[in-house]
Design a protein that fits this description.
Elements (H helix, E strand, L loop, with lengths): L2 E5 L4 H17 L4 E7 L14 E5 L1 H13 L6 H10 L4 E6 L4 H9 L2 E9 L5 E4 L1 H8 L11 H7 L28 E6 L11 H13 L2 E5 L6 H9 L6 E2 L6 H9 L3 E5 L2 H8 L3 E6 L5 H4 L7 E4 L11 H11 L12 E7 L8 E5 L6 H6 L2 H9 L13 H27 L4 H27 L4 H13 L5 H28 L1
Parallel strand pairs: 1-2, 1-4, 2-3, 4-5, 7-8, 7-10, 8-9, 10-11, 11-12
Antiparallel strand pairs: 5-6, 12-13, 13-14
Helix pairs in contact: 1-6, 1-10, 2-4, 5-17, 7-8, 7-12, 9-10, 14-18, 15-16, 15-18, 16-17, 17-18
Length: 507
Amino acid sequence: MSKTLFIQLERLGDLIQTTPLLAEYRAANPDVEIHLLMLDENRSALTGFGGVDHYHYLPQKPVGKLNHQIDQNRDQAHPLAQSLMNDLALPAFENLVNLTHGALGCWLADRLPARNKEGGLITPAGDWFWRGAWHAYLLAMPDFREHNRFNLVDLYRGAGPGGPVDSRRRPFINQADNLPFPVPEGRLVALNPGASRAPRRWPADAFSKLAEQLIAQGFTPLLVGAPSDVATCAEVASQLDSTIINVCGKTTVPEMAALLARCELLISNDTGAIHIASAVGTRCVGLYGASAWFSETAPWGNGHLIIQTALDAPMSSLSVETVLTAISAATGEASITTTGTETIWRTHLDADDPLGGIRYELLTAKLSEEQLFMQHFRGAFAEILMGNDALNAAEPQCASEADALAAAKALTHMSVLAQDALAKMQADTADAREQIEALGKGLESGLEALIETADRLPHVAPPIYWLQWVLRTVPLSTLSELLTLRAKECLRAAQILETTVYLHQRG
């Protein structure tokens, strides 16, 4: 029986965001034996999940340590990593898909036996590279995070072997049958003040003021969170004039899922709770700031409200009034208004998207011409990275379209230069070698010019930054391989830009 291994060594939220991919791969490949390598601390989260046949676990503590050690010394031996791999005693696989950005996952992916591999790999020589167009996008994305509109659920789905099937599978989380404490009746709203990093947390006093307002409106707020959030929740509770139910640190992951399933709403910073809530069908109001970007980690599904603070604004700049407005909109009781610099977005499942994923609707402002144009990059990347033909645009109708088509023309020219150089390699004469050298210089200067264009014109940047990472990270041993890669990927980046223009013109 054919076997496929998925490696997901990220935190709980990322694991939950991976489950639609696993479920879809299961449905499309009923005869394949599916294995998942994950952190041991998340063991209880997927009990009862039907998308995986065999689970394998690594302890979190050495994983974090090894991520740092391997990243700093990629070409050295790592006995602890070798010992962990030996203890796993994994079989040989037909396919291996590494969905982990951490160094240990990439180190393991290179060394575990598998015929076909996608994702990050770290070789014994210390080379770190990526296989697969969607995995390259995941790597490049930090350079244009504010323009990315792919949720990680959909990026993971694109990165699966064979791509996604047509479905709307919600993320999965295991729910407990019973809770260790009584749950009151009424309109329950869960508040999750914690987050892994302090800059991502809305202040405790703001959560306290929000809780008082919710109580006044007839809601019953609950404080929830992981054991690491106990101090934060205690601080929120201590500032309240009213009594609040505080169950932070008192639930397992399955119990947290069961509790959130009973709530009308969750208000949370960017943390695992928001993905648990989306997996059980509870609507969310997500609070995103600092290094947290809603487009990557927003709850997957219809009708969630997302508040994103301005790039240079701390989470404390977000007012209680704005959050209350989003809560009213999420419960269908008010329209959206805001007096701050933050933006508020609503999630929608997009039937027209080749990935069948979610798109984000801006509710609080009118998009500029450049922002309207950038909204279509998601659809263009999906079309091209899924292997579909480019959609040809008409004559440019605005400055953004003209910029994009000019960049596409430059990329197409670079592809032609690479093809010409490949053709001249067949001659193997002194004259041909001089011509190849000149063409190579033209390719390098062309790429440098495009990077300058991306820095200057952010609305054309995503496919150029993506191309840059592809060219940096694919391992090559010969000039022929280099030229072949440039010919192929420059053309693909041009097709993404052309398709973006087409989608923008279609509206």
